[in-house]
Task: structure prediction
Amino acid sequence: MSSDREANMLRVLTHTSWRFYLCFGMFSVVALWGLYGYILQLRHGLIVTGMRDQISWGLYISNFVFFTGISYGGTLISAILRVTDSGWRHPITRLSEAITVFALCVGGPMVIIDLGRPDRMGYLFIHGRIQSAILWDVIAVSTYLAGCALYLYLPMIPDLALLSEMKELAPWRRKLYRTLAFGWTDTPAEKHLLEKCISRMAILMIMLAVSVHTVVSWIFAMTLRPGWNSSIFGPYFVMGAIYSGTAAVVLSMYILLRVLHLEDYLKPVHFRNLGLLLITFALLYLYFTINEYLTSVYKVEGPDRVLLHQLFFGDYAVMMWVTQAMFIAIPLLMIAGVLTLKRLRRFTPSVVALASVLVVLGAGAKRYLIVVPTLTAPFLPKTNRGDIPFNPPLPFNWVHYRPTWVEWAITLGGSAAFLLMYMLFTKLFPMVSMWETRHDEAQVEPAVAPAPQPAPQRLGSIATTVIVLIAFLLFGAGLAQAGQKRQPKAPQATTLSLEWKQEATPAPTNDGAEQAQPSAPEASGVDGVYGRLFGWLPVESRDRTQGLPPSFVITATLLGAKGQPLAYQVVGLSLKTSFGKLDYGSRPTNAEGKAQFSMQDRRYGQYPVEGTYDGGAEFAAAHAVTSVDFGPRPEPSLPSQGVLITPYATAWIGLPFLGFFGLVWAVFIYIGVYLLWFRLPQIRKQQAQST
Amino acid sequence: MSTSRRDFFRSVGGGALVASLSSMEGTAAKVFHHVLPARSTAPTNQKWVMVIDLAKCDGCGKCTQACNAMHFVPPMQQWIRVYEVLDNPEAGPYYVARPCMHCDNPPCVRGCPVGATFKRTDGLVMMDQDRCIGCRNCIAQCPYGARSFNWSEPPHTPEELSHKYSMEEGWPHRKGVVEKCDFCPEMLRAGKLTACADACTMGAVYCGDEYEDAVTNSKGETIQLSQVTKQGAGFRLLEELGTDPRVYYLPPVNRKYAAPGEPKSS
Result:
């Protein structure tokens, strides 16, 4: 019996029906259409899309979020269920891991398609700035893709060895399988080592997946825009990803069940269990959605108001309500109905699959609703009414985003490419893990009982799964700044002379608070370190000069032709800057012919200060210039706003990333190079020697 | 081939140690030293600042016109854009001219993945069209909408194309990169006003060097920066976002022109 169902499953590797060619051809046409769209976009620029300056991210970015979300399915099914040791997962691990890899192969390039200058993509590596959320994404998604590929490959090794023994296969294929199988001889020691590799990878993949979906959300959450500026985005995205990913797994299960006739492997219990998981995720997603919107709906802050109106009653209202219904409400009711009503129970696979179609489509729409509406609600007005010259109102398509056919072509082309890769995969590799399912049979068959596993046990493992999920969500949420110069005028000459001196201490002002401030330690201790790090210092202590600037007193002395002081004459003072003259007004001279100007300005460097006496009927005009030194200019420096704007890779941000993703890569290398490439042949040799 | 696990890790670890030690000096120099790279250091030790007196702005758009002409700004872009703002119906509308704010805590610089936009010691946020990859994260980051993107190849004039590209002037323009107001640093260093300040017939736009504590407008009026921002109740746009802009606004009080929407008197 076991060989029967296995032979049935493997038939697809050798037999290709006309339906396969038809679908393959159709998807190829769609993929080529998308390629044509991209070539057009490369030639003409992003003008061929519906994006403009106001709404500068659109379908491509929402596709990126959607496909990375779908990719969560594989990790969930194989890694989380493996860690919680749910035995029923065995027949569905391979097909879900494949979803992960191929969804990432389509999702990652969506960001490159969105670039204005894809030819400069390499700059991300040459000039990459670790402070940017975009770079975090590049690191996280590429690490995730590498991990998923390794995680798809590892459990396939024993199957590849089995396949290389199959005489029905063409010699080149058997050779390919033999190469990929790494000389697997299926000894217990080898199996033990492989199980070790897989279980370690499983734990790593869960952490990695949570980090990837959190980092994806940070592209949005690290901006100031209303609607994106939200602390819930990390777990919200992780939840949405698990939800849509699980739905994608159910969908592919259903298609494979119908196309490849895998009834012997994919039983109603799988649809039932995944249906229960889908209900859990739908409820959790509902909870997150209510949390996200209710907190801003209750307060309606200024900039949020426009966005919320757009979403709930305006341009996006229909889409919003339809999406909420088809993403959460309808699938929830459908699955709950089919699982609880006894009469409907036999429709479980079809209904859960249908609900999954809604969830996958709804996930795409929900991503669009996260990306686009926020951009239509900027802080400053989107456009003018038209009475301001040279600042005309923007055309309709600049303030309202609608994807063009090119964007749809690339989106559908990407989806078609995903399906093509998946189809080819089914032709090349067994979609069900043979060695793991054989192991199940060996355990189940002695019991003979065809009856379903006792429900409490299954529910128990699902409960464990949910608890582990929630724990990881919490973990993800936790992850979460002069010279004197005389110009005597001829007749009744007067002399104006200027003297300046800097007052020793800043003049105490009547404001007590200001006086106290210089003594307060500004940027010292832990507070100062973190303040400098992220620019968190409060505005007062960020003040460039402590307290008050030094005060200067400039004394203009007006003397008559005989050197006698001229009293009650009006003397003016101005300071020459590089753009003009700063007027300090005029003062009358006192009995000693002196007029005092005091300045307490935030000024640095030497400036010519000009005193003027306009003269009158009695006295001639006079004028004097002196150079006042206000102290040296500060050293050229960047504003002290912490690590986020420095031109360097900073250890404060670099090290956590290096630590986490470096650790992940180290484990990849440990498993891929040490255990697989080095240790495995050794074990095999020892085994051969001992026998 | 009797290499034990310990031997394996010893050789791998030794290799990693040698590699990390040899790269450490260069990396440490890059990460920890405090010498600014050449592109972040401005030619002169000045700090540019702008003051826009909203009481004087009559929304004539001359600043936009002059800026567009000087920088050959591509169509549909305004590096300085005049907005009509209505805070609440009772307060009445007013005009706001919005150049790049050249923030001291610039969200665009934080978000740029390749350092194509960066802060310079003269306070300016520079835009390097030779490096921009066109990801438009800066547009998403900028709360002032001060950035535009060349969605297609911009139309060129022979005069524009004859010029050699420099970061300070920002032209000739290219397809697929982000553009914004550059504060005309070459003009400022020569002691001339920026295109927008020079063209403002109302004298509403002042610019100058923060270290001189003075700003000057097209009418030759020089005002003291620290004085007007303190006594004139100067403010910065969207101060609550913590971006620390280098453009100050004076409130639209006692206006001498028709408010937006009213018939122009002169």
